[in-house]
Amino acid sequence: MSADQLSAGSLSTLDLERKGFPELRGGNLSVRIAATDDERDAAQALRYRVFYEEMGAHPDAETLRLKRDFDEFDAVADHLLVIDHAIASDARGVVGTYRLMQGDAAAKIGRFYSASEYDISPLTEFPGRLLEVGRSCVDKDYRGRAAMQLLWRGIASYIFLHRIDVLFGCASLPGTNPDAIANELTYLYHNHLAPPALRVKALPERRVDMLRVDPHSLDFRRSLASLPPLIKGYLRLGGYVGDGAVIDTQFNTTDVAVLVKSELLADKYYRHYERRLRDALD
């Protein structure tokens, strides 16, 4: 079901646009778009703690001084936040974040972030609206089902609000030694490679082959189980990966391109939470 195919009894995208992005609640937690500079700063501070202090990314001097993960894309992107209202209902309560950047926002910079690692021309030439997602992280004390469910719910409502057709971005596996994750990379390539029309490819100078072992020798269930939760989430939605991995030495990760046609995410999340969305907007 696409954004323009909502049934007459459904919450329309026009209703969402009139009222703005809703705050969705789940117990003490909620998800919404950052509305203030302090909230965006809190997202960057959380990213620094997770990426640099916890996961071993390598900060430059300015990043280390400010203790913030930031780049030029932050100024034009939307920042989805998970907030724990038991702490506070403002920036102080930010415990999760996901950066969302639409095509018109990327045009202000002149490119998408993913273009530094992948040839994304199959997507930029695609006749539809694009949403690049990235910089996803959750505070270590909140890495259970609730926070990730809220992030997915937030993305689902966002794609309806903005009539997004394809969601994409770079997702990370830990470490910079592709041989240490050979089974996982091979599993992704063999089982979830994007169709040619949407198949982004790693830039030749950065490309790392994903087909690293004989796929017929793999324990598929074990390979899937060992993937990071975020990548497994994309796959459960029917998502694909691009051709080739990329080593990101700054963030101490091996990246793969992921993409999901938005109706797959909408079918799983939007319909399930449609009543709550309507209630949030009333």
UniProtKB/TrEMBL annotation:
- Provide a Gene Ontology MF annotation, just one: acyltransferase activity
Cross-referenced InterPro entries: Acyl_CoA_acyltransferase, Ornithine_N-alpha-AT
User: What are its E.C. numbers?
Assistant: 2.3.2.30
Biochemical pathway: Lipid metabolism
Q: Which organism is it from?
A: Acetobacter farinalis
Keywords for this protein:
Acyltransferase, Lipid biosynthesis, Lipid metabolism, Transferase
User: What EC class is this?
Assistant: transferase
Function field: Catalyzes the first step in the biosynthesis of ornithine lipids, which are phosphorus-free membrane lipids. Catalyzes the 3-hydroxyacyl-acyl carrier protein-dependent acylation of ornithine to form lyso-ornithine lipid (LOL).
Top-rank taxon of the source lineage equals: Bacteria
Q: Name one Pfam family in it.
A: Acetyltransf_5
- Signal peptide position in this chain? none
Catalytic reaction list = a (3R)-hydroxyacyl-[ACP] + L-ornithine = a lyso-ornithine lipid + holo-[ACP] + H(+)
Q: Keyword Acyltransferase, does the record have it?
A: yes
Q: Which family, according to UniProt?
A: Belongs to the acetyltransferase family. OlsB subfamily.
Task: Kindly provide the name given to this protein in its UniProt entry.
Answer: L-ornithine N(alpha)-acyltransferase
